[in-house]
Amino acid sequence: MVAEAAVPYFWPWFDPAPRLAVYELEDDRFLERTNALAGATTHLDFPIPIAIDPATLVR
Question: What is the pTM for the complete model shown?
Answer without folding.
Answer: 0.77
